[in-house]
Amino acid sequence: MKKLLEIKRYSQVFLLFILCTGCENETKKENIKVVETSRTEHLPYYNEESFTPNWLTPGSQEEKDFHKIPDFKLINQLGDTVTQKTFEDKIYVTDFFFTICPGICPQLAESMIKLQEEFKNDDDILLLSHSVMPSTDSVPVLKEYAETHGVIDNKWHLVTGDKKEIYSLGRDQYFVENDLGVPKSIEDFLHTENFLLIDKNKHIRGIYNGLNRASIAQLITDIKNLKIE
User: Residues 150, 151, 152, 153: is their CA dihedral positive or negative?
Assistant: First the structure.
């Protein structure tokens, strides 16, 4: 009987040791996770399709000479012309969609709606969604889509225009398609779940998966950090 009690006592001590060790390991894992996901003082800059981060100092000559989104001329859901002047001294998030998309676009719209709600009272933050089917997504079609999705005019611009210009912006300037080394023509459909964060100087400062809640949460955090950079 005495031996049984001793065995039981040793078993309890061993179990307690295992639990404590497990908790300690979890704590270490959590600490490692915090370190891995922590942000530096400034968000990185991007200038090509591999999205390799470039760590530049804001305001430096290197930053001024870095890749910027060039000017463009498109039309939004109100029939107004949208250019880089529309986003002058603004931070904006951009994506690519089409109104009759049955697949990922409804989820992308939900993510944009979340961003709109988060920053609806912040005039420094705008949203820009390019139609990749401009031949069918006319101004009236975009207007109806905007009304259906609760788009705030002049906060969230849904744009149509010249297909070559839109596809060139997406592939050659925003680098939203990550098919590295695979050449694409105007006949190849542009379709992506990526959201891009653009700063007030027209630099790309982040890429995010518009279908992923954690990625959108990170985007919201990065926008807030970019505002105080």
Answer: negative
Known binding-site positions: 101, 105, 191
pLDDT of residue 15: 37
Interior CA angle at 56 toward 170 and 49, to 5°?
25
pTM of the predicted protein model: 0.82
CA distance 145 to 150: 9
Helices (H), 38-138: 61-64, 105-118
Beta-carbon contacts of residue 138 (< 8 Å; ≥ 6 apart): 160
State the pLDDT at residue 16: 37
Contact by Cβ (8 Å): 97, 130: yes
**Parts of the chain with a pLDDT under 50:** 1-38
Binding residues for Cu cation: 101, 105, 191
The pLDDT value recorded for residue 188 is 85
Rounded CA-CA distance 156/90 in Å is 13
